[in-house]
Specification:
This protein folds into three domains: about 280 residues, Beta-galactosidase, Chain A, domain 5, CATH 2.70.98.60; about 300 residues, TIM Barrel; about 80 residues, Sandwich (Immunoglobulin-like). It is globular, with a radius of gyration of 26 Å. Helix 10 runs parallel beside helix 11 and helix 11 packs parallel to helix 12. It contains 13 helices and 37 strands. Strands 6, 7, 8, 9, 12, 13, 15, 16, 20 and 21 form a ten-stranded antiparallel β-sheet that branches. The protein has an eight-stranded parallel β-barrel with strand order 22-23-24-27-28-29-30-31, surrounded by five helices. Strands 32-33-34-37-35-36 form a six-stranded antiparallel β-sheet. About 55% of the residues are buried. It binds alpha-D-galactopyranose (GLA). The site of alpha-D-galactopyranose has 11 residues, from loops.
Length: about 700
């Protein structure tokens, strides 16, 4: 259920979802104020809440209540969500309420400036099957002559009820260490989470959760938000000295401007918010449900087991080598064979060739045709690595179009990984990019693209353009448009989002891709933390995870094959090792483990996930789907040789009985909850197990 109610006397709206409600009102000054975000209330109760005096009212802070989209103007001194400057130099906005309309859970509140023809619509949308509230903002300059400079236009500001303390959970990291979950107390300050890189980034993810410091995995109130945007972004969390906490967020980072031309409209991405009462676990499950039902395009599909050649070959790619890998991959039960970097142009290393998207004639003398045909004959689908937004200066593309890159007059062109960024905000560059991708996919009926982006923006200028900063937003939109167009024209095409691993993972890109390359770090011990962080927002079906060689190429850690598989089975399983070096025993064990994964992947990929433990000694996740339960448990180190404490299952009914599909042992639910699931872990470090239970009545 999703309803929108309006109280005309108080000019207050109440949006109600399955278990939460959200209320806002028009204030005396014409702006929109926050009223409520939390448990379900009646309209009358929301009105009473709105009448409560602000704890901050004084002559130094005269705005009572927190704005839904704060502007400059009047006595407002916190971070503004909307910052504008008119052509005559006037800054800020003075609001006038301009009506509203609503249909099917979508409320649009219209505001305009009292003097200037600047119109703003604030959108609130609830789906009947989710407590996730989608919010975004539309700004329109109806002046027929003069532009308006937009210095900031956030999607939404979120406010939580007044609590004594506030804690913030967020995801930080770097290349090879993405999605590290941190829980920090929110300081009385403005705390900025941001990416200035033109990409979502490895360093911070535009998801955060706020609680009062007492929530746990399965209990407590949690307010969390996620921005659906894949370029630069900024979220400012503001805890003021009188105790209110709110945060405003949107696309673009500090200092960028957008000149809104006469008649032009700026639409922000969705900033989605979720209130949940069952702790961080329930919040994640609600996000997973939302991603499945309202973000992903093919949520019901089961992701195939893929093979990727990157760790096996690096840039040393050729037809014979790929054929050898493909034959072995097929024998293991792999369903999708993906050739990574190194197949095109003069791409023998990362120094050359990016931009020249034709098969290297020495490595593939007859083009890709023979490889694709053989992969298909082996019963697998075919996928290819591409990096469409980038160019090596040592490439035919750059020699022909040195002006196509992001650049500024009188500034150097900083190279990272010997490459520059193409300015896809330029229509001819976007058109060219779409053209070669479309041709490539069409020529070989390619099933899958791994869409990579291996450097951030620098010197992001657009010489000759009178509003160059807009490229920061227009580039990302162009990426979205190319993906959307490719998918519309090639309905069978699936896309993996990648930016040096998990540098572009967000709800915006997931609306046009099918999975995320989670991290270039494939070490299973490191992956446990990366995957736990990733699972805060994203469901297992989009989390690509490969089994690679031991010792691991990034960490030199030795781990058993079974442990590597069990860790990768927590998501969309792939294999990325050099199969030509695996022994017969390893290949046999790998084939068995792939088969075991195929038996449980429906539950893992489409099930409801419960993070049971993650205490260092034991990490475990339980997936539940249609009466089937899969438990994956990993013991990265056995300190003192001690066994971990019993693994108690949370998602079982005490009065039901659960049978282990492999051993046949039946367990009463009450005991699984109370004394735990007996785990048959091999001795020593890097021990792991997979248990598949079914509910018997
Ligand atoms: C990035 C990706 C890797 C691989 C390389 C190829 O780093 O994350 O998986 O595709 O590029 O250059």
């Amino acid at each position: 259920m999703a309803t929108v109610q309006f109280d005309p006397d108080h000019r207050l709206w109440l949006l109600t979802g399955p278990t939460t409600a959200y209320a806002l009102r028009v204030a005396e000054d014409g702006g929109l104020r926050h009223v409520h975000w939390g448990a379900v209330l009646t309209l009358a109760q929301a009105v009473r809440l709105a009448e409560q005096p602000s704890p901050a009212a004084s002559s130094f802070e005269a705005i009572a209540g927190v704005d839904e989209l704060a502007v400059e103007g009047g006595p407002r001194f916190g971070p503004a969500s909307l910052l504008v400057r008119f052509a005559d130099g006037t800054r800020g906005v003075e609001w006038r309420y301009d009506g509203h309309d609503a249909d099917a859970g979508h409320l649009r509140v219209h505001l305009r400036d009292r003097h200037y023809p600047l119109h703003v619509t604030m959108h609130y949308r609830l789906h009947p099957d989710s407590d996730v509230l989608e919010r975004w903002t539309t700004v329109e300059n109806r002046d027929d002559r003069r532009p308006v400079t937009v210095l900031r236009c956030d999607s939404a500001a979120w406010t939580v009820p007044h609590r004594g303390t506030y804690r913030m959970s967020h995801l930080v990291g770097g290349w090879n260490s993405e999605f590290q979950l941190r829980r920090d107390s929110v300081p009385v300050a403005e705390t900025v989470l941001t990416s200035r890189r033109g990409m979502t980034s490895h360093h911070a993810n535009p998801w955060l959760a706020v609680d009062d410091g007492t929530a746990g995995e399965e209990h407590g109130e949690v307010w969390s938000t996620a921005l659906a945007w894949s370029g630069s972004w900024r979220i400012t969390v503001h805890r003021d000295p009188v105790g209110r906490t709110s945060w405003t967020g949107g696309f673009g980072h500090d200092g960028l401007t957008w000149s809104l031309a006469p008649g032009e409209t700026l639409d922000t991405p969705v900033f989605a918010g979720l209130h949940s009462t069952g702790g961080f676990g329930a919040a994640s499950r609600a996000w997973h449900g939302y991603v499945r039902r309202h973000v992903l395009t093919h949520p019901a599909e089961t992701r195939p087991v893929l093979y990727n050649s990157w760790e096996a070959t690096g840039f040393d790619v050729d037809e014979a080598g790929q054929l050898a890998l493909a034959a072995r991959a097929a024998s293991l039960g792999v369903e999708l064979f993906v050739m990574d970097d190194g197949w095109f142009g003069a791409r023998a290393s990362d120094r050359a060739g990016l931009g020249d998207w034709t098969p290297n004639p020495v490595r593939f003398p007859a083009g890709l045709g023979p490889l694709v045909a053989e992969v298909r004959r082996l019963g697998m689908r075919f996928g290819l690595w591409v990096e469409p937004e980038m160019v090596n200066p040592d490439s035919d593309l750059y020699r022909a179009h040195p002006d196509w890159v992001l650049r500024m007059a009188n500034r150097q062109r900083t190279e990272m990984r010997h490459q520059l960024v193409l300015n896809l905000a330029r229509p001819e560059v976007a058109e060219w990019t779409h053209g070669w991708l479309d041709g490539l996919v069409r020529a070989h009926q390619i099933d899958f693209l791994k869409w990579d982006a291996n450097r951030p923006f620098t010197e992001a200028g657009w010489p000759g353009h009178d509003d160059p900063d807009r490229l920061w937003i227009a580039h990302t939109r162009a990426v979205y448009q190319i993906m959307d167009r490719l998918r519309a024209d090639h309905p069978g095409l699936r896309i993996e989002t990648c930016s040096g691993g998990g540098g572009r993972a967000d709800l915006g890109v997931l609306a046009r891709t099918d999975q995320v390359w989670t991290s270039d770090n494939t070490d299973p011990v490191d992956r446990l933390g990366i995957q736990a962080g990733f699972s805060q927002l994203f469901p297992a079906q989009v989390m690509a995870a490969w089994v690679t060689d031991s010792p691991n190429v990034a960490t030199a850690r030795h781990t058993p094959l079974r442990f590597r598989f069990h860790v990768a089975m927590a998501g969309a399983l792939g294999i990325g090792g050099d199969l030509t070096t695996w022994t017969e025993d390893e290949l046999k064990e790998a084939a068995e483990l792939v088969a075991a994964y195929k038996r449980v992947r429906g539950v893992v990929q489409h099930g409801t996930a419960y993070r049971l433990r993650g205490d260092g000694a034991l990490t475990a996740v339980q997936y539940v789907h249609d009466g089937e339960h899969v438990v994956l448990a990993w013991c990265p180190v056995r300190r003192y040789g001690h066994e971990p404490a019993p693994l108690r299952l949370t998602a079982v009914a005490p009065d039901a009985v659960y049978r282990d599909r492999k051993t046949g042992t039946a367990y009463p639910g009450a005991l699984l909850r109370h004394s735990g699931l007996p785990l048959e872990l091999p001795p020593g470090d890097h021990a792991s197990t997979l248990v598949h239970l079914e509910r018997l009545g």
